[in-house]
Design brief:
- The protein is mainly α.
- It has one domain (2-201, 209-411).
- Helix content is 81%, strand content 0%.
Length: 425
């Protein structure tokens, strides 16, 4: 049960990080005003959207490092790491500077009180890109202990820094700073298991096909992050600051059902890549991941529907209790997102890209739905849930169709038998 073992390692580490992240949110929900709390989450959604390529970078590097690891290509691994740090580091600096030039527009659109709250996000943009390089290689090499520490430590550092900054009296700026600074620390910590590759003499190695593979990965990362974050930005624009703050509490709790099974999505990618390279049965890996994810999410939605007021009041305080009725809707929406995250990892690990069109269509449909139906928060949530249900169902059908074709060809003896990593010379 390699999937369960690897996912368990990541689950423990990510849960430590997620628990700390939620403690941070609960702390900020109690210490910040409703306006500042809604602003904080809207700004963090903006930086998440801007750093979408970082997620794509992590996936691409995980794919190639997994192939090189299977084939024991140390020189290729060193070249991949050194070259990625150089190019992505430069791109990260450029992205941070571009963001700073647009900071006044972002401030006005989201009705942020101080420009400093927006400018601080530039640190997070830079840190997210360089951190993604290290985490991508660790994931592809299946160094799950180090990967888990890198992921889990972010939440712990965020909570500690947040508590200190709030105690000092930095308010909203302190909350933003506590969120963006840990990425730089994580990069430095995860540098240790990868240092040897920086010293290898491998600068001339060519990684053919890496750009071609990066395009669909970036497209899928953009669409996925868009689907999971655009609601917070649009709510901040359409609704009052108080309503946006209430919605943020629902989003924070509801996204536990997206983050809980994330360890399976992380483990699925390198394991399916390896199984695909040696012509193994990767659908068994997918089945196990989906079963665990759906089980976790179903239990979460049940709890949200059973005691929503108790959960929100206990964690955020009584002033957030009027948002309790919306928790089950957001939980259901994030359950569909969790299924999508596993299907995306599975497809990208096998170089399947046709699903991306459905994510793009889902993104357009979600924006349209929120723009048309936003007379109240419940209407927005029902629209979001419906869009994500349709998108997840369609992608499950695509995988089912692919599964039928795969087993038909395998039974006929027509499945490919390429050597591991074919096409990645």
């Amino acid at each position: 049960m390699a999937l369960v073992r690897n996912a368990s390692i990541l689950f423990v580490c990510t849960m430590a990080g997620n628990f700390s992240n939620y403690c941070f949110q609960f702390l900020m929900g109690r210490q910040l005003s409703l306006d500042d709390y809604g602003t904080m989450n809207a700004l963090l959604s903006v930086v998440t959207s801007i750093t979408l390529p970082a997620g794509a970078i992590m996936i691409v590097l995980a794919k190639y490092s997994s192939i090189y690891s299977v084939k024991n290509k140390e020189a290729a691994m060193g070249s991949l790491y050194a070259g990625s740090l150089k190019r992505i580091g430069a791109a990260a600096i450029a992205a941070a500077l571009l963001f700073m030039s647009l900071s006044w527009f972002i401030k006005d659109y989201l009705r942020v009180a101080e420009i400093s709250s927006v400018l601080l996000l530039a640190i997070g943009i830079f840190g997210s890109f360089i951190m993604a390089v290290n985490l991508g290689l660790l994931q592809g090499m299946q160094r799950f202990y180090y990967l888990g520490v890198g992921i889990g430590l972010g939440g712990i550092l965020r909570l500690l820094l947040g508590a200190v900054f709030i105690l000092i009296g930095f308010g909203l700026n302190g909350a933003i700073a506590a969120t963006v600074l840990p990425s730089v620390f994580i990069f430095l910590i995860t540098l240790k298991p990868l240092k040897a590759y920086l010293n290898s003499n491998s600068a001339s190695f060519r990684h053919e096909g890496i750009f071609k593979y990066s395009v669909p990965v970036l497209a899928s990362s953009v669409a996925f992050a868009f689907l999971s974050n655009i609601d917070l930005i649009m709510i901040k624009h359409y609704f009052t600051p108080e309503a946006a703050g209430l919605y943020s509490s629902v989003a924070v709790l509801g996204k536990t059902l997206l983050y809980l099974p994330s360890s399976f999505a992380l483990a699925v990618f390198p394991m399916v890549t390896e199984a695909d390279a040696i012509n193994g049965d990767f659908f068994k890996i997918l089945d196990k991941a989906l079963i665990f994810a759906i089980g976790l999410c179903s239990a979460g939605v049940f709890v949200f529907a059973l005691v929503p007021e108790l959960i929100i009041s206990l964690l955020f305080g009584a002033r957030f209790s009027e948002a309790a009725e919306f928790l089950k809707y957001y939980g259901a929406a994030m359950s569909f997102m969790a299924v999508l995250s596993i299907l995306i990892s599975f497809n990208l690990a096998r170089n399947k890209t046709g699903f991306i069109y459905s994510l793009g269509a889902g993104s357009l449909l979600m924006v349209s739905a929120i723009a048309l139906f936003h007379s109240n928060i419940k209407e927005v949530l029902i629209s979001i849930t419906a869009v994500l249900l349709l998108t997840a169902a369609f992608n499950l059908w695509l995988v089912y169709r692919d599964r039928q074709e795969y087993y038909r060809l395998r039974d006929c003896g027509l499945c490919r038998t390429d050597e591991p990593g074919a096409g990645f010379e």
